[in-house]
Amino acid sequence: MIAPTDTTALDRMLEPVADILTPAVAQGIADMRADPQLQARIDELAAKANEGELTEAEQREYHDYVEAIDFIGVLQAKARAVLARTTSV
Questions:
Q1: Which run of H or of E encompasses 36?
Q2: What is the DSSP letter of 86?
Q3: Percent of the chain as helix, strand, coil, to the nearest 5
Q4: pLDDT (tens digit, 0 to 9) for every residue of the chain, 89 residues total?
Q5: Which of 24, 39, 1 is nearest to 79 (CA)?
Q6: Residue 74: which of 5, 14, 3 has the closest Cα?
Q7: CA-based diameter of the chain, in Å?
Q8: Could you give the CA distance from residue 78 to residue 7 in angstroms, rounded to a whole number?
Q9: CB-based contacts of 76: which residues, under 8 Å, 6+ apart?
Q10: CA atoms of 55 and 37, how far apart (whole Å)
Q11: Rounded to whole angstroms, how far apart are CA atoms 7 and 53?
């Protein structure tokens, strides 16, 4: 999982990306969701993680998903901020 200081760094690193997002692209990013098959896999791994039953390979896979979700979450927050600015103008 990304540590709070990493999220701050990631947030700062993605700021230039937010500056160039068009409203249409920002909306697409804000609307991004995992497809049902991927979400089911993430949910399966999360349940196994909560029970302490992940294999080493599953731990790496789950970690990768968590990292990606954190990254996408920061990117989506940037996109929503862009959308908020464009609707208030």
A1: helix 36-50
A2: H
A3: 80, 0, 20
A4: 555 556 688 889 999 999 999 999 999 999 999 999 999 999 999 999 999 999 999 999 999 999 999 999 999 999 999 999 988 76
A5: 24
A6: 14
A7: 51
A8: 13
A9: 29, 30, 32
A10: 20
A11: 28
What DSSP designation does 29 have?
A: H
Both tokens of 11, joined, read 């947030």
SS (H, E, C) the chain: CCCHHHHHHHHHHHHHHHHHCCHHHHHHHHCCCCCHHHHHHHHHHHHHHHCCCCCHHHHHHHHHHHHHHHHHHHHHHHHHHHHHHHHHC
DSSP state of 53: -
Q: Which residue has the tokens 């999982």?
A: 1
pTM of the model: 0.82
Delimit the domains of the chain by residue range: 20-88
